[in-house]
Write a structure and sequence with these properties.
Layout (H helix, E strand, L loop, with lengths): L3 H6 L1 H10 L6 H29 L6 H30 L19 E6 L22 H7 L3 E2 H7 L6 E2 L2 H17 L2 H11 L9 E3 L4 E2 L1 H6 L10 E3 L4 E3 L4 H4 L7 E3 L5 E10 L18 E11 L4 H18 L4 E5 L11 E9 L4 E12 L1 H6 L2 E3 L5 E3 L1 E9 H11 L7 E2 L13 E2 L1
Parallel strand pairs: 4-9, 8-14
Antiparallel strand pairs: 1-11, 2-3, 5-7, 6-7, 9-10, 10-16, 11-12, 12-13, 13-16, 14-15, 17-18
Helix pairs in contact: 3-4, 5-13, 7-13, 8-11
Protein name: Serine--tRNA ligase
GO biological process, one term: seryl-tRNA aminoacylation
Catalytic activity: tRNA(Sec) + L-serine + ATP = L-seryl-tRNA(Sec) + AMP + diphosphate + H(+); tRNA(Ser) + L-serine + ATP = L-seryl-tRNA(Ser) + AMP + diphosphate + H(+)
């Protein structure tokens, strides 16, 4: 949510954001409702003051006071209706994109910032190496042949877009979890990443979190993640939703709280199962682990001072790049355009890893800078050392969507024998397994 004072004073900027993000919102209607709301607040306060003054007078008129009370009651009812309409319209106002965000209608205007790693062909020696002599398979083919991914039984039991992962692929997922925690909780490694990225920020580690996977509707709305509602799993009997990412409950952890300036940054690395209906993806990625209704995810969430929030996002992206580079997976970093970013995002960066079996880059990580958009809705603040109180800025990002990370490893590390070499960075977490076969 934006500050209404900012909206009044920067109408052209807000109109541009509404247009460029393809948001269906009538700003003139919001401003008119805001004006009426302020009139009613001023009038009701004046009426209340008059009522108090007359009731304390020595010769007050009972009938006159009764009329004032009735008038005040009618005005209060109108104000409540106007407040509700004002709130609904305010909830629809998008965040303002950063200056470096490309302007464009859809994904065709996204900009590649950089690429890393050489896309190599395959050979009998195994893994992604030069001098290829076989066509790489898609992960679901490898998974079925190695009996580590079972889609058919999952479809019988649960339906489409579910999978049984078995054997060493399960160990690989848990290895990725251990690997991620080992990086994000290690201040020495984080200092190294900050130095390489040339960022002047605290090296404070991320605190591990196992958050709830259910969230109340009003809190989901404050996170601005409830919509599109058709993507969410809802339990009507308890009026509660299953989360689509750990960030949904981690970001709301400090709702109605105020940090001390010296406590920031507060950084979390959370693990949870995520649930998505994939309502708008009929026919897409039906085979395999790319687009599932249930998957496990490692998510970063940070609360930081306003002046450091964009640098914090750059740091988070640098951490993701470090982890992917350690796994030796080719990737590219994109900054998303206005038409392909979320309403709540000020800056949105995606990382796409090369998938040899599919012969293209696929999105594996997302980093969202929210500025104070969520914090204002959640009432999460920071008291500065100067005594001033501000809303904190918030960042969230994928550390690893585990199923997609497994897909990337399977396809990049496959051999001509149909086996999968385990990346060296993960072997110490695999109980001695160096190759899945």
């Amino acid at each position: 949510m934006l500050d209404i004072k900012f909206i009044r004073q920067n109408q052209d900027i807000v109109r541009e954001a509404i247009k460029n993000k393809n948001i269906d919102l009538d700003l003139d209607k919001l401003l008119a409702i805001d004006a009426r709301r302020r009139e009613l607040i001023e009038s009701s306060e004046a009426l209340k003051a008059e009522q108090n003054r007359k009731s304390k007078g020595s010769n007050f008129d009972v009938e006159e006071l009764k009329l004032l009370k009735e008038k005040f009651k009618v005005m209060e009812h109108e104000l409540a209706c106007v407040e509700e309409e004002f709130y609904q319209l305010m909830m629809g106002v998008p965040n303002i994109p950063t200056d470096d965000t490309p302007i464009g209608p859809d994904e065709s205007s996204n900009k590649v910032l950089r690429q890393w790693g050489k896309i190599k062909s395959f050979s009998a020696e195994g893994g992604s190496v030069s001098g290829g002599d076989f066509k790489p398979k898609e992960h679901w083919e490898l998974g079925q042949e190695l009996d580590v991914i079972d889609l058919e039984r999952a479809a019988k039991v649960s339906g489409a877009r579910f999978a049984y992962r078995k054997g060493d692929i399960v160990l690989l997922e848990f290895a990725l979890i251990q690997y991620t925690f080992s990086i994000l909780t290690n201040e020495k490694i984080l200092k190294k990443i900050l130095k390489k990225a040339k960022l002047d920020l605290s090296s404070k580690p991320f605190r591990p979190i196992l958050p709830p996977v259910m969230i109340k509707p009003d809190v989901f709305q404050k996170m601005d993640r409830l919509e599109p509602r058709e993507e969410r799993y809802h339990i009507p009997s308890d009026d509660i939703y299953l989360v689509g990412s750990a960030e949904h409950t981690m970001g709301a952890m400090h709702m109605d709280e105020t940090f001390k300036e010296d406590d920031l940054p507060v950084r979390y690395i959370g693990f949870s199962t995520a649930f998505r209906r994939e309502a708008g993806s009929y026919g897409k990625d039906m085979k395999g682990l790319i687009r599932m209704h249930q998957f496990d995810k490692l998510e970063m969430e940070s609360f930081i001072l306003p002046e450091d929030s964009q640098k914090e996002q750059d740091f988070i992206v640098a951490i993701i790049e470090y982890m992917i580079q350690e796994l030796k997976l080719p990737y590219q970093v994109l900054i998303m355009c206005t038409g392909d970013m979320g309403k709540q995002d000020a800056r949105h960066i995606d990382i796409e890893v090369w998938m040899p079996g599919q012969n293209k880059y696929r999105e594996t990580h997302t980093s969202d800078l929210m500025t104070d958009f969520q914090a204002r809705r959640l009432n999460t603040r920071v008291k500065r050392n100067s005594g001033e109180t501000q809303y904190v800025h918030m960042n969230d990002a994928t550390a690893f969507a585990l199923s997609r990370a497994v897909v990337a490893i399977m396809e990049n590390y496959q051999t001509s024998k149909g086996t999968i070499v385990v990346p060296k960075a993960l072997r110490k977490y695999m109980g001695g397994v160096k190759e899945i076969k």
